[in-house]
Write a sequence for this structure.
C-alpha cells in the first residue's frame, strides 16, 4: 500500500508483529509468585492467551493482506487489458487477441469496485488464494502442497475464526484455548503464514523475501507484565 511519499508493506508488518508477540512473551519478566492462587493463575493464563491470540490473528492477517494485494493487481490489470484490446478491435475488427487474465475478467473484471468482490464467491480467503493461483497459472496449494493447505485451513484459519468469533461456552472455548496455549501449535502460526506467502514467490520462480524467514524491521525484546 502506498501514500504520497511512503510504501507500507502490510503483510510484512503483520507477520513481523506475529513473531514479535511470541518473542516478547518469551523474554518478558513475569511476576514471581511462589504459591499462586487462582486469581494469579487466571491473570497469567489471560496474559499468555492475549499474546498468543495476537500472534495467531496477525499471522492470518499477513496472508490476507498479501493475497488481497495480489488480487487487486490481477483485477486492475484484467480491466486495463480488456479495455485496451477493445479499443484496438474498434480500429481493426478482424483482430483476434485475448487479453491477459481473460478468464479472470469474465468472472470478476466487470465488477467496477474492487471492494465489491467480497460480495462474490471470493468472500472467503481460501477462495481468493485459489483464484490468485489460477489467474497466475500456478498449481493450487491444495494440489501442490496439501500438508500446507491442511495447516492453513485446519490450524491457522480455524483458530483465527474461533478467536475472532469467540464462543463463550466453556467446552468450546476450552478447545480454542488449548490450541492457543499449546507451545508448538501457536508457534506454528507465523511459520504457516510465511509458507503460504512464500508459495506464491516459489511458484513464480522469484526470490523469497527475507522477512518470510525472520524479522527485518523490528524486534520486541520484552513486554512489561503489570499484574
Amino acid at each position: 500500500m502506498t501514500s504520497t511519499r511512503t510504501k507500507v508493506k502490510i503483510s510484512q508488518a503483520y507477520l513481523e508483529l506475529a513473531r514479535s508477540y511470541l518473542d516478547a512473551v518469551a523474554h518478558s519478566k513475569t511476576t514471581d509468585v511462589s504459591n499462586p492462587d487462582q486469581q494469579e493463575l487466571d491473570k497469567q493464563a489471560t496474559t499468555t492467551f492475549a499474546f498468543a491470540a495476537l500472534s495467531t490473528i496477525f499471522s492470518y492477517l499477513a496472508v490476507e493482506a498479501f493475497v488481497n494485494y495480489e488480487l487487486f493487481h490481477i483485477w486492475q490489470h484484467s480491466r486495463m487489458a480488456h479495455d485496451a484490446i477493445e479499443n484496438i478491435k474498434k480500429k481493426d475488427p478482424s483482430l483476434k487477441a485475448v487479453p491477459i487474465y481473460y478468464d479472470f475478467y469474465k468472472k470478476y473484471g466487470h465488477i467496477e469496485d474492487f471492494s465489491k468482490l467480497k460480495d462474490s464467491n471470493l468472500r472467503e480467503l481460501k477462495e481468493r488464494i485459489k483464484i490468485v493461483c489460477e489467474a497466475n497459472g500456478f498449481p493450487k496449494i491444495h494440489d501442490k502442497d496439501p500438508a500446507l493447505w491442511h495447516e492453513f485451513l485446519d490450524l491457522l484459519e480455524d483458530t483465527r475464526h474461533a478467536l475472532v468469533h469467540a464462543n463463550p461456552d466453556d467446552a468450546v472455548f476450552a478447545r480454542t484455548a488449548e490450541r492457543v496455549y499449546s507451545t508448538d501449535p501457536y508457534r506454528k502460526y507465523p511459520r504457516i503464514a510465511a509458507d503460504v506467502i512464500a508459495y506464491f514467490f516459489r511458484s513464480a520462480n522469484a526470490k523469497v523475501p527475507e522477512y518470510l524467514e525472520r524479522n527485518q524491521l523490528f524486534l520486541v525484546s520484552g513486554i512489561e507484565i503489570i499484574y
